[in-house]
Design brief:
With 117 residues, this protein is mainly β. It has no helices and 11 strands.
Length: 117
């Protein structure tokens, strides 16, 4: 079964930074929108950011100006750079690759981000 693979989570102090990576299967890379979502314990899953196959980006208001998304075509990888992290950013972060027309969608297993002093 196809899936994307996230990495880069960990423990960071408030104000610190992390970079998450999402590796997308090669056959999906050129046409899929890749997005990041997060889910904290007891809360719903929230959209964080996305990037289309041609580089258009979207961000949730809660992280705008602190997080940035970009893609590396040579590595079939999307990165989420997270700066000025806050305790409320702590969650499991999930990557999703979705076809913009068919809606076919695949997820990863998630990577844990903990923000604590």
């Amino acid at each position: 079964q196809e899936q994307v693979v996230e990495s880069g989570g960990g423990l960071v102090q408030p104000g610190g930074s992390l970079r998450l990576s999402c590796v997308v299967p090669r056959n999906l890379w050129m046409s899929y929108t890749v997005g990041w979502y997060r889910q904290a314990p007891g809360k719903q899953q929230d959209f964080i950011s996305s990037i289309t196959f041609d580089g258009h980006t979207s961000y949730a208001e809660s992280i705008r100006g602190r997080f940035s998304i970009n893609r590396d075509d040579t590595r079939h990888t999307v990165y989420l750079q997270m700066n000025t992290l806050k305790p409320e950013d702590a969650a499991v972060y999930y990557c999703n690759a979705r076809h913009p027309y068919t809606g076919y969608s695949i997820w990863g297993q998630g990577t844990q981000v903990t923000v604590s002093s």
